[in-house]
Amino acid sequence: MSRIGKMPIPIPQGVDVQIAPGRVVAKGPLGQLEAAFPERIECVREDDALLLKRSSDARQDRAFHGLARALVANVVRGVAEGFQKTLEIRGVGYRANLEGQDLNILVGYSHPVKVSPPPGITFEVLPGGNPQEVTGRIVVRGASKEQVGQVSANIRKIRPPEPYKGKGIRYEGEHIRRKVGKAAK
To answer: If pLDDT is split at 50, 70 and 90, which confidence band does 134 have?
Structure first.
């Protein structure tokens, strides 16, 4: 049995969950989200928790059991607490600021790169510490874990960290393998 799939999903206070075959809809303080999964996986509500059960021990059902549980857990947690990812901007002269809800990123191009948030996503810009290290931080927040991750990946793609000096946009805590560079004669 899937170790992840058999774990119950606690339902927090203020979250309303509706179950239908192959999907779960959760409404909470941060909005409404829906998770779809194969109909061979059954979702059952027991007290203040959701349990996912599979119909058979077929290979495909075992594979989808843990996936379905993770998708439903992300939806329930998303409408209750939400998700966030922090990106670090490193490099001299690299910075970001907010113009209304839009994010303006200056990372060495001849023009600022403007990123508009999709519905349900908010940006926050925090100052960095040491200019040699982190010159700024961008926090991406939202209810959908998938959407927060995709928007963060799109922002990182604007100027990925380079391996020589480490300049660019990276995830907080991401380790970049550094190269040595040219040898002096």
So the answer is: confident
Domain 9-80 - what CATH class?
alpha beta
| Other CB atoms within 10 Å distance of the CB of residue 3 | 9
The residue among 183 and 150 whose pLDDT is bigger is 150
Reference 73, options 50, 44, 90, 53; nearest CA is 50
CATH superfamily, region 83-171: Ribosomal protein L6 (3.90.930.12)
Q: What confidence tens digit (pLDDT) does each residue in 58-72 have?
A: 999 888 999 999 999
Tell me where in the chain the CATH 3.90.930.12 domain(s) lie. Answer: 9-80, 83-171
DSSP 70-95: HHHHHHHHHHHT-EEEEEEEESTT-E
pTM of the model: 0.88
Beta bridge partners of 95: 106
